[in-house]
Design goal:
By secondary structure, the protein is mainly α. The chain has one domain: Hypothetical protein, domain 2 (Endonuclease III, domain 1). The protein contains ten helices and two strands, in the order H-H-H-H-H-H-H-E-H-H-E-H.
Length: 194
């Protein structure tokens, strides 16, 4: 292996390495991007992240760049078109979850604009105290699948009605969006993001 040391999970493909090097663990605060990532992590449930990553550009195309205002208005014809698209994971429950989650996301954002609560970003970042948590794992075997923080996020999202937001999905989301730094300590990105 040449070049910098990385977390071993990303070495299977160029796309995976690029995702690891440029995105994974970088703090994301933009609410629309967080909405996108939460849904994509939910789409991953029962599958590998590389499966979703390979389909991400098609997801962005067919889900209107994750514009929740448009997604919330999808009708039966649009749902049928999505379920016929081989470029995404054609799971009816997951497709419907994107649409229902869009409606809930808009409710949160609208309430925040009226001064009646936190926006989506503040709400989610609240589960890690508003700033990234830096872990110091020496191997992938040490990295947990979920934590009390992801348990709390999952419980709160489910209470609001969000779908495909189990604790493991929430922890993967927290890792991806930089709420936790779970790069192993020998990975060059660990220090860069600490």
């Amino acid at each position: 292996m040449t070049g910098p040391r990385r977390c071993s999970w990303c070495e299977a493909s160029h796309l995976y390495r690029a995702y690891h090097d440029e995105e994974w663990g970088v703090p994301v605060y933009d609410p629309q991007r967080l909405f996108e990532m939460l849904n994509l992590e939910g789409a991953q449930a029962g599958l590998s992240w590389i499966t979703v990553l390979n389909k991400r550009e098609q997801y962005r195309r067919v889900f209107d760049q994750f514009d929740a205002t448009k997604i919330a208005l999808y009708d039966d014809d649009k749902r049928a078109a999505l379920l016929a698209d081989p470029g995404i994971i054609r799971n009816k429950l997951k497709v419907n979850a994107f649409i229902e989650n869009a409606k809930l996301y808009l409710q949160i954002q609208s309430a925040a604009q009226r001064g009646e609560g936190q926006g989506f970003s503040e709400f989610l970042w609240g589960f890690c105290g508003g700033q990234p948590r830096v872990n110091h794992w020496s191997s992938l075997a040490e990295v947990p699948a979920n934590t009390p923080h992801s348990d709390a996020m999952s419980k709160a999202l489910k209470k609001l009605g969000f779908k495909y937001v189990g604790s493991t999905v929430c922890y993967a989301f927290m890792q991806a969006c930089g709420m936790v730094n779970d790069h192993i300590t020998s990975c060059y990105r660990h220090q860069q993001l600490s």
